[in-house]
Prior knowledge:
Layout: H1 2-27, E1 41-45, E2 48-51, E3 56-59, H2 72-82, H3 94-104, E4 113-117, H4 120-135, E5 139-143, H5 152-157, E6 169-172, H6 187-204, E7 209-215, H7 230-240, E8 244-248, E9 273-276, E10 287-291, H8 293-302, H9 313-328, H10 331-352, E11 356-362, E12 365-373, E13 378-379, H11 381-393, E14 396-397, E15 399-401, E16 407-410, H12 418-437
Parallel strand pairs: 3-14, 5-6, 5-7, 7-8, 8-9
Antiparallel strand pairs: 1-2, 2-3, 4-10, 9-10, 11-12, 12-13, 12-16, 15-16
Amino acid sequence: MNEERVLNALNALDDTEALLERRERLLGKAYRLFYDRPVHIVSGEGAWLTGADGQRYLDSYNNVPHVGHCHPRVVEAISRQAATLNTHTRYLHEAVLDYAELLLARFPAAFDIAMFSCTGSEANELALRIARAASGGSGVIAVYDAYHGNSQATAELSCGVGGAHADHLAFVPCPDPYRGEHRGDDAGERFAKAVEGAIATLQERGHPPAAFIIDTILSSNGLPNIPSDWLGHVVPRIRAAGGLFIADEVQPGFGRMGDAFWGWERLGVQPDIVTMGKPMANGHPVSAVVTSAEVLDAFQQQSGYFNTFGGNPVSCAAARAVLEVIEEEGLQQHALAVGAYLRRGLRALQDRYPLIGEVRGSGLFNAVDLVEDRETRAPDRDAATRVVNGLRDRRVLIGASGPHGNVLKLRSPLVFGRSEADFLLERLDTVLAELAGSGQT
């Protein structure tokens, strides 16, 4: 039996090397992979993935299969609709209208319009177009080191400190109370001052602000524990300057945060425009912009909107199934309870390992900030890389985040339960103990 396992592992290694060579040859070198030893996945179910080597891996990273890999309700909805009809959106069809009604019911009454596209990048780009039409401005303010997509317009917003920026863009530091420059009791007001500076910069360049856009959990910034009232200091400044507030919910939305269905609800300020992406349909390519008829009015007077397969019948069937599963299986409440359980376990590890500077998050979106020293809070990127790869070797898949790459990002499907949390915590304990034993912590 041991010989068989060794043979299977060697065959899987050979397959991986062949796949890597084929991938680079056919797709080019720009495509990135996770882990020092990439994982070859062949199937998935719930919170688990199965590799070509026959091993099961706990998925604690992939937010796109929101209600779990291959959820039978979603699979059945896709199959049934695909067997009936899939076509573009210039024909009448009930599916997109039925789903729009269900989606808008998750918002306050002021939000009465839903527009569909295929990716989060497209949704954010459409939101920017709507904001520019509604405001008459052209400038956009975003947070350094955020991620909003990979189209030209959204990639420009997904920018690190020190890069070359277009004149119509201005960036502000992330409001990070753990390591950022906006710390202390007046953090919200000081961050608002930074936003005022960005507004002034745009106006001097001849680009009055059209929008302030933010991922409402600041996932690429490492999930900082920002004060719940900080947007209350910021958004009035944006609106006074004529701009709109765009909430990017591609990662935090649809109940992931546990205590709220949308990330913006936790921050106390209602957006003008909300965007969302593929998690809304468990990975099927659909995204959305939700706003009000009042905000949309100028845009629709200037131009029409058409997205060939944005909101097609199959995607809408998948998205509807996801909403129904979240409601019927109580997954938002589940995320709240399991997330709290997981964070208790992570904080118990924090008590034992000085490498862990801070544990933060909400629901099933959590982060572990690794530091060289708790006093200085100096980020430890190397340790994060070692932990991510050490967990991969122990069949737990996570990622790293933050501007320093030192924050462990835990973003599991909503069906992730206590047994999965225990599995993750046990293996994280093992990896941290090995790092401590080798003098790496």
